[in-house]
Amino acid sequence: MSRKRVAILISGRGSNMAALIEAAQAPDYPAEIALVVSNRPDAGGLATARAAGIETAVVDHTTYSKDRTAFEAALQQVLTQHDIAIVCLAGFMRLLTADFVLQWQGRMLNIHPALLPAFKGLDTHARALEAGVKIHGATVHFVVPEMDSGPIVAQGAVAVHDDDSEATLALRVLAVEHRIYPLALKLLAEGRIELAHGRRRIVGARPPDGAFVVPDDNG
Ligand code: GRF
Question: Which amino acid residue places its CA nearest to atom 10 of ligand 1?
């Protein structure tokens, strides 16, 4: 089996990155984490990646001031140099231009801490509490030019408790993020899902391991 070479793009602590690295250590996992790229030199996840023996790179967006195209050209160069087949955004806090996104169409995933299409954008947990929803969660989706809008690959749901704070809810959602991202990457790397006509398509039989996770320890 040839394993797909994956780059993970981060900006911060990198706990989803760590979950992907751990999953990819299984000998039968169809992807290898070949590179971790951060747009911030101080991202905590860089040390975690290096400790796991993964190559890292920093493409510091501040170096390119307001030139988004030059920043993305540098990013693309690093990805090309490492012969990357799939890109996973994991807490990567830069908006990408349509040109860059279209270069990776069908080969780039993102994780969002809400059950899309609800609560796109930032502060999802605070907004979920404010809205009084009883079910919240996380989504892995294909990246398309419009933010947090691509076809959904996997979702994980958690119950919202009456006494939840933003922090307690975030913690419960993060636990499902760490389960659904490795699952979604596996489906893509195995070629069992693909982007067809802007929608997610399952190739062959529906995956037996599903793409919807509700943890048992959900309270
Ligand atoms: C996660 O909640 C992810 O869903 C969001 O940013 C956060 C990143 O956390 N896009 P981490 O860096 O993976 O720990």
Answer: 91
